[in-house]
Amino acid sequence: FSYARSREIHMAGTLGHRIADDYSGADAFDDDGGAEYKSTIANSINATYNGISVEDKIGKYKNHYYARYESGKIVEVWKLDCNDVLSIILPKARKQYAKKSKGIGKDPRIGVSISKKEIETLGTRIVG
């Protein structure tokens, strides 16, 4: 059991998407194909992409959905196009890569966050 997976199932049901059958690949499928889901229980909407690898799926899926939960319920969902997501995270990932390649930091994996401001500036609110 995974809270992240349970939220993906809940988000798919709320958004009318089909949940993915397994854990690898897309989280769900919308009208454009595979979709990436992120959720948070923080006080403001945000998203984190941890452990970014060479074969990451960030640019692979057209639509990325960000949900914020309160008391087990979705209070807002935002949708961003993968090109907008990449425009936010690539500069951050490049900065981190420069540090990681020099051995700075304990965890060698790259992880970046997308802020509330970035989501609200480039995204479309579809729930809440």
Task: Provide an overview of this structure.
The protein is α+β, with helices and mostly antiparallel strands and about 130 residues long. Helix content is about 30%, strand content about 35%. The protein contains 3 helices and 8 strands. Strands 1-2-3-5-6-8 form a 6-stranded mixed beta sheet. Strands 4-7 form a two-stranded antiparallel ribbon. Strand 5 and strand 6 form a beta hairpin.
Number of strands: 8
Major sheet size, sense and barrel closure: 6 strands, mixed
Cα radius of gyration in angstroms: 15 Å
Tertiary shape: globular
Treating each run of at least 4 consecutive H or I residues as one helix, how many helices?
3
Unreliable stretches (pLDDT < 50, length at least 5) are none
Strand order of the largest sheet: 1-2-3-5-6-8
The percentage helix is: 25-40%
Distance between the termini: 27 Å
Topology as a string of helices (H) and strands (E): HEEEEEEHEHE
Quaternary state of this entry equals single chain
Whole-number average pLDDT? 89
Structural class, by secondary structure, is alpha+beta
Strand content: 35-45%
Considering the chains and any ligands shown, give keywords for the structure.
single chain; 128 residues; alpha+beta; 6-stranded mixed β-sheet; two-stranded antiparallel sheet
